[in-house]
């Protein structure tokens, strides 16, 4: 199949050492912290496909959100209760991220229905992807 896709170009290999099917796992943690003393960030909180490329960006924003709060508490400039705002603030963002990822997976599944011999619906697929990106990546 790969050789057909790359035609008229040629690709050769002696052996395939490893391959797998990628299964999308979309999950969100129930709580971002335990008793405002143990905190979770990034992949420990949310898993999803890499399609949107937002996992690491989201993790950085979570770390930043938690870091400035912890710094203020440790310096005595904020009450410890400010740490309890981290989870609710970030959980909503993760929920939106996973919902967007689910929609992207649906859109890309439409591409898999195409074949190299019958790519007639590609313009519709690309239009769907473009509309989604315009609405979500602005």
Descriptive key words:
138 residues, two-stranded antiparallel ribbon, mainly alpha, 4 strands, 4 helices, 6% strand, single chain
Report on this model:
The protein has helices at 2-6, 55-74, 86-112, 122-136, and strands at residues 27-28, 33-34, 38-39, 46-47. It starts with a helix and ends with a helix. The longest helix is centred in the C-terminal third of the chain and has 27 residues, at 86-112. By secondary structure, the chain is mainly alpha-helical. It is 49% helix and 6% strand.
How is this fold's topology laid out?
Blueprint: H1 2-6, E1 27-28, E2 33-34, E3 38-39, E4 46-47, H2 55-74, H3 86-112, H4 122-136
How would you classify the helix and strand content by structural class? mainly alpha
Q: Order of strands side by side in the largest beta sheet? A: 1-4
What Rg is obtained from the alpha carbons, in whole angstroms?
A: 21 Å
Shape: elongated
Number of strands: 4
Content of β-strand: 5-15%
How many DSSP H or I helices? 4
Helix and strand pattern: HEEEEHHH
> Considering DSSP H and I runs of 4 or more, what fraction of the residues is helical?
40-55%
Main sheet attributes: strand count, strand direction, barrel closure: 2 strands, antiparallel
- The average pLDDT score comes to 84
Distance between the termini: 36 Å
Spans with pLDDT under 50 lasting ≥5 residues?
Answer: none
């Amino acid at each position: 199949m790969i050789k057909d896709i790359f035609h008229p170009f040629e690709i050769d290999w002696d052996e395939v050492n490893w391959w797998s099917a990628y299964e999308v796992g979309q999950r969100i943690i129930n709580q971002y912290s335990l008793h405002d003393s143990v905190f979770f960030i990034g992949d420990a909180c949310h898993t999803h496909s890499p399609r949107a490329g937002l996992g690491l960006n989201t993790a950085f924003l979570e770390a930043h959100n938690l870091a400035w709060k912890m710094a203020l508490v440790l310096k005595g400039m904020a009450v410890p209760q400010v740490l309890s705002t981290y989870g609710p603030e970030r959980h909503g963002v993760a929920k939106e991220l996973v919902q967007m990822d689910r929609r992207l997976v649906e859109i890309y599944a439409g591409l898999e229905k195409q074949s190299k011999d019958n790519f007639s619906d590609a313009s519709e697929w690309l239009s769907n992807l473009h509309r989604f990106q315009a609405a979500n990546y602005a």
